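Deliverable D2.4 — example input (structure tokens):
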């Protein structure tokens, strides 16, 4: 059987079932991640040769060398009439495995993601700065960022350049103009794209992932020349994201780099997904930290442990705590009280809020 045809059937089954991810391991049946839970497909095991056959048959020509050299590769794969998938192929114990992430062809809206739009729209209207969306794998970072850019596209005239590995959501120009560059297809590597982007006259830059100090320094340089930069980072909380950013640098460079964070429009958004009480789908809760003068002073002093306290009391600067969004979701019956309390960084405070007791 043709590996491409077999995999198209598996991917169609996954999309019809509402799966966000598909896990393929040689000589095992496929697994689907639905509402955060991994479930096996009732099917025969996928032979190792068929897994390799799909990778070699779907891999863009430019990426063949990477697969042969590194035994791992990430790329985008589209199925006509079905949609796009982010593909990560790799070898383990001498056999091939693949993880697919389903990417809906149309960027989502705030309503479709059940997000509180008001604070996010305010951030979209920033003239410059870094908007860093963080969270664990599968926490909805890319979807949240796409919803923000989607809102900008339909309401503001901006030139937006994205650097992605691979491209996830594709945008159709409306009031804004998008240039979406995929590493490996449109530009040889990430550093080259980063170095070139400031010469491409962008108003907004999307960097798929804040991955190293060169990316971080480019983002800072872009904001200082009036650009707004969107990016993501694998970090469970805002506090963890701040700590990791400066860990890109050796200890002797950390203090000087913290001084490069001078503008109050730098923002951190942390996402977490929760299952609704009745099952089916997931809802996002987020916290926002706006780096105002108080936050900048803490950064200069390296006092990251005090960030959580600022989130709880930072409404005036535009910051908001995770508990505030959990409170919103619980009151709207989107998630259960038990789930909210389980994931809250301060469950005692959230429980008091739900009883109508708020502290200032």
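Example output (designed residues):
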């Amino acid at each position: 059987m043709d590996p491409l045809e077999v995999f198209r059937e598996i991917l169609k089954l996954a999309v019809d079932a509402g799966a966000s991810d598909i896990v393929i391991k040689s000589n095992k049946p496929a697994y689907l991640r639905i509402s955060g839970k991994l479930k096996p497909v009732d099917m025969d095991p996928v032979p190792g040769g068929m897994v390799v056959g799909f990778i070699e048959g779907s891999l863009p020509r430019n990426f063949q060398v990477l697969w042969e050299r590194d035994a791992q590769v990430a790329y985008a794969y589209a199925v006509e009439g079905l949609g796009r998938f982010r593909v990560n192929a790799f070898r383990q114990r001498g056999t091939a495995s693949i993880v697919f992430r389903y990417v809906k062809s149309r960027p989502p809206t705030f309503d479709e993601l059940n997000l509180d739009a008001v604070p996010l729209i305010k951030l979209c209207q920033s003239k410059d700065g870094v908007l860093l969306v963080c969270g664990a794998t599968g926490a909805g970072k890319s979807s949240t960022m796409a919803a923000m850019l989607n809102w900008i596209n339909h309401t503001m005239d901006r030139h937006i350049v994205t650097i992605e590995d691979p491209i996830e959501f594709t945008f159709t120009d409306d009031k804004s103009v998008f240039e979406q560059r995929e590493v490996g297809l449109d530009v040889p590597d990430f550093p080259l794209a980063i170095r070139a982007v400031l010469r491409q006259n962008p108003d907004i830059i999307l960097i798929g992932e804040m991955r190293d100090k060169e990316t971080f320094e480019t983002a800072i340089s872009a904001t200082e020349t009036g650009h707004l930069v969107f990016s993501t980072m694998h970090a469970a909380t805002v506090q963890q994201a701040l700590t990791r950013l400066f860990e890109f640098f050796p200890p002797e460079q950390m203090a000087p780099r913290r001084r490069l964070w001078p503008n109050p429009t730098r923002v951190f958004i942390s996402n977490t997904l929760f299952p609704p009480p009745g099952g089916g789908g997931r809802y996002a809760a987020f916290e926002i930290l706006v780096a105002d003068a108080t936050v900048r002073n803490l950064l200069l002093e390296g006092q990251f442990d005090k960030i959580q306290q600022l989130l709880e009391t930072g409404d005036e600067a535009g910051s908001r705590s995770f508990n505030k969004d959990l409170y919103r979701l619980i009151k709207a019956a989107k998630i259960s009280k038990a789930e909210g309390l389980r994931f809250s960084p301060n469950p005692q405070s959230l429980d008091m809020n739900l009883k109508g007791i708020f502290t200032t």
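The first helix runs from residue 3 to 16.
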